[in-house]
């Protein structure tokens, strides 16, 4: 492999400059501002600002609504991750068994990923709408009353389904690629030895898919904690009774609606630390079980 040597030492930095500028402007600078504002208390107009130290963080731990958002976020993140990855794996296995029509099915299953989160939320809001929705009408025929506007459990079910549906296509692509990378000779040898489909899946397919599964686990947890804001906003707006008020939505609501900038900044810092901690735990402990 031929090695390229730049004659001008400034050229590599110039090539990296656009990406470095984007990273600084849209990631590092906002994060630094959030950390700074988490130690301040200011009015809604930003005129009077005072340093309060850790008072914003102490107020969070004494707030029942914030502690409830932690619980709701944990339930929501686990549910979305399990549902989206489980459904994607089942679809990937089904497509992997089809030799001639793999590409058309793959194309159709990937399309939902192109849908914006807000559009996905509105789509499922219409489907589950108690007044005009198709599914509530069908469920009413079987004696089940659906009204996510007043039922916290049904509201959580709605946002989990809408968020997971949006992510299934992304997971599906990686699972299909992972399944196609597994040598067919290994599964054929296991079948010759008398292993059934279930045994082959758990003893061969699933262990060899562990790198893909680990990667998707990290991505889906981050997705459920950050990128599902638009789904929540388009469907339930955190209700009813704070049942779907996940942490990222509470950051927005307290900061932009309630104009409590200090508390909103403190919440964003806590959310960032939680995601960093989960990622470190996954790479430090979960990755040890991954077979490369």
Amino-to-carboxy terminus distance: 26 Å
- Under CATH at level 1, the class of the largest domain stands as Mainly Alpha
Largest sheet: 2 strands, antiparallel
Tell me the series of helices and strands, N- to C-terminal: HEEHHHHHHHHHHHH
Number of domains: 2
Query: What is the number of strand segments?
Result: 2
Tally of helical runs: 13
- Gyration radius over CA: 23 Å
Shape: globular
Strand-pairing-aware structural class: mainly alpha
Helix content: over 70%
**CATH H-tier superfamily of the largest domain:** MetI-like
Strand content: under 5%
Provide the CATH topology of the largest domain. Answer: MetI-like fold
Give the second-level CATH assignment, the architecture of the largest domain: Orthogonal Bundle
What do the pLDDT scores average to? Answer: 86
Strand order of the largest sheet: 1-2
Regarding quaternary structure, what we see is single chain
Low-confidence runs of at least 5 consecutive residues:
none
Can you offer a commentary on this structure?
It is a single chain. With 292 residues, the chain is an all-alpha fold. It has 2 domains: 27-62 and 260-292, no CATH class; 79-256, MetI-like fold, CATH 1.10.3720. It has helices spanning 10-37, 55-61, 64-96, 102-110, 117-127, 134-141, 152-181, 184-192, 197-208, 210-227, 229-235, 247-257, 261-284, and strands at 40-42, 49-51. It has a two-stranded antiparallel ribbon. The two termini are 26 Å apart. The mean pLDDT is 86.
In short:
This protein has 292 residues and is mostly helical. It has helices at 10-37, 55-61, 64-96, 102-110, 117-127, 134-141, 152-181, 184-192, 197-208, 210-227, 229-235, 247-257, 261-284, and strands at residues 40-42, 49-51.
